[in-house]
Amino acid sequence: MSKNKGYFITFEGPDGSGKSTHIKLVYEALTALNLSCILTREPGGTELGERIRNILKDTALNKTLSIQTEALLLQTARAQHIHEIINPALKEGKIVLCDRFADSSTAYQGIAHGLGKEIIEYLNKISTSGLKPDITIVLDIAPEEGLKRAEKRSRNEPKDRWEEQKSDFHYKVRYAFLELAKAEPERFRVVPVRGTVAETQKQIYNIVKNALGLL
Ligand code: TMP
Prior knowledge:
Elements: E1 7-12, H1 19-32, E2 37-41, H2 47-57, H3 67-91, E3 95-99, H4 102-112, H5 117-128, E4 135-140, H6 143-153, H7 167-183, E5 188-192, H8 197-211
Parallel strand pairs: 1-3, 1-4, 2-3, 4-5
Helix pairs in contact: 1-8, 2-3, 3-5, 4-5, 4-7
The structure holds thymidine-5'-phosphate.
């Protein structure tokens, strides 16, 4: 448990791992139990964060952005997200479900893009003021499988900045998350994405119930 009254759960994983589907299902299940819970995402969650998300997803504009600019925009969105949404909700005793958080910056910008794990961890410390998730669920999927799913999802839209990356980048992201999980086994739970959505969701929901003391 964090020092807050609430409980902070983050979902991480490579593109197309199904995080957004699963986090929504967990949110619906917890809400059905009358638990006070919010669902939010990064980059995003606040007006500023959603605007930054649009900048990063703007295929024309984002071609001009350096990796450093991208990293700092993501940290800016995060600092505001914590200030405006996450910390107040945790102080009110809510369960906060967040689709991506600081570990995405470490995996994508720090490790896969090569800005440096330590540098991004230092920036994360500033943007989060040291707040860490109580648990982090990593959905693990082979990049080619994840990208196939991401493509199916957005067949008619132009590829975004991240989807345009070559497959070795996505391998680096995958192994970065697995390395982070290995280094902090008390916080991370790795769930392999196999079988049906219902089968994967069952595993995830059991982890969440266990963490919240509902089992
Ligand atoms: P999403 O599609 O899972 O919402 O995330 C959008 C993209 O943002 C995804 O490809 C990963 C990327 N991202 C980073 O590179 N660093 C970060 O810190 C965050 C939060 C997301």
